[in-house]
Amino acid sequence: MRTLLVLCLCLYVAWAQDNLEYDDYDMDTVTSSGSKTNETVDARGHRPNTGNRDRYNAPRNNPPPVSGSSRYRGRPTTTSVERSVVQEKKEQPEAGGCTHPSEELGVLCPNGCELKTMLLKQEKNVKTSINELKPQVDDLSQSSNNVFNYVNSISNTLRERQIVINDNNRVVSQYTDSVEEQHVYIKETVDTVFPSNIRVLQGVLDKIRLKIQKLEKAIQAQREECKEPCKTTCPIPVVSGKECEDVFRRGGRDSQMYLIQPDAFYPAYKVFCDQTTQNGGWLLIQNRLDGSVEFGRRWDEYRRGFGNIALDSGKGHCETPGEYWLGNDRISQVTKMGPTEVLIEMQDWTGAKVHAQYQQFTVQSETSNYILAVDGYTGNAGNCFLEGSVELFGENRTMTIHNGMMFSTYDRDNDNWNPGNPSKQCSKEDGGGWWYNRCHSANPNGRYYMGGSYTAQMAKHGTDDGVVWMNWKGSWYSLKAISMKIRPFFVPQ
Ligand SMILES: *[C@@H]1O[C@H](CO)[C@@H](O)[C@H](O)[C@H]1NC(C)=O
Ligand SMILES: *[C@@H]1O[C@H](CO)[C@@H](O)[C@H](O)[C@H]1NC(C)=O
């Protein structure tokens, strides 16, 4: 089950990498650049000149933001022992002999005459018996000789074998010695090296086990959450309008998802309206807040828009904005309707917040690659769009100004860094689609880094590809949250 899980994770990682198309072109050319210098504090953003042919062309004359009078007027202001049996032996008289003098006991010895005849008779018998026995004795002697010889030969054989045995013992002992040596070595190894290695591996295993348990818990939690199909049903509020200011004026005073239709010739679409900040009326066109949506995307995706407009956190309506990019066509269309202001709000990982606001913000149509035009800065984040990075000087700073830039994505290079040279593209190095110059002082669509500070070694290409706003936190701090909201500009009453 666990191995299966790990396998799944590996497959997922491989799959996820396959998907990051914009990164897979030259992963090895990049890693060296970061280690040599104290880059964590250096300002990056720009790409300095490297030779004669590498010249920076200052921005052209671009159309200014739409200005002039608004169609709106100001409004009021929300884990036996075995027993041995000893048998007594009875003394018995010996059978047939003069064993006892007492008459009572009845056994009498024979007289002398009888004894002689008996003996003569017996002698004859004995002689014959002896004669009969002689050959047998000879036989026996003969056979005992044989036995002797046999025993002798066996002894010889035994001696010879003894010799062989001794030889064998020598061999065996040598062998035993070497076996003992090896045993000692192996024992040492097993007693010292192995245990420590095993301890280390055990530690590693324990950590992995812990991580797997955490992952299993997380997966379990996700499974629970996903038992029911995700509800993306956001009830659409009754109130709608041309954009969020219009919605506000028609009574849509809660910050949530609304349906808007800026132009009667195109279908209506969903957006998140912030109806509280600075008296509301703000249409959210860009939002980063948790890294849940990938922003390294193609031209077409930036044109149409991507991400999650809004979520329902249990209140019955979609009052929480997701991470998204509204889409260049829509942004362009809305900003061209009339004078539009943009509010860029950002937050670091300690919760501190700052903002930058431009009273005039216009994005031209696709035919002109969505050229950006802003004016009228106010706020405390720093004026990246118009002034570039204040850490840089001269031409280096000019290279980081965004105003007047065309939009670039990793598959469409419109930046000011050696145009036409595919190895010098800001969007490929800096992570997102944006109005890159050469390259940026602000990178709101960059890679999302948890915790804020990151280094050139952590970045895919050694560049400051985080969610950066140089004039507030520098090149090597990726913001926790940033959003861009637009509203028709009007003079408050
Ligand atoms: C980088 O340089 C700054 C001063 O310029 C210094 O304070 C900092 O300790 C240096 N960091 C490293 C990692 O060398
Ligand atoms: C521009 O940047 C390069 C390298 O970062 C530096 O060598 C050069 O002096 C800078 N130019 C100015 C005008 O600061």
UniProtKB/TrEMBL annotation:
Where are the residues of the annotated region Disordered? Answer: 32-99
The Fibrinogen C-terminal domain, residue ranges: 235-490
List, alphabetically, the Pfam families matched: Fib_alpha, Fibrinogen_C
Key word ATP-binding present in the record? no
Give the source's domain of life in one word. Eukaryota
- Which Gene Ontology cellular-component terms appear in the entry? fibrinogen complex
The record's subunit annotation is: Heterohexamer; disulfide linked. Contains 2 sets of 3 non-identical chains (alpha, beta and gamma). The 2 heterotrimers are in head to head conformation with the N-termini in a small central domain.
Q: What is this protein called?
A: Fibrinogen beta chain
Q: Which organism does this record belong to?
A: Labrus bergylta
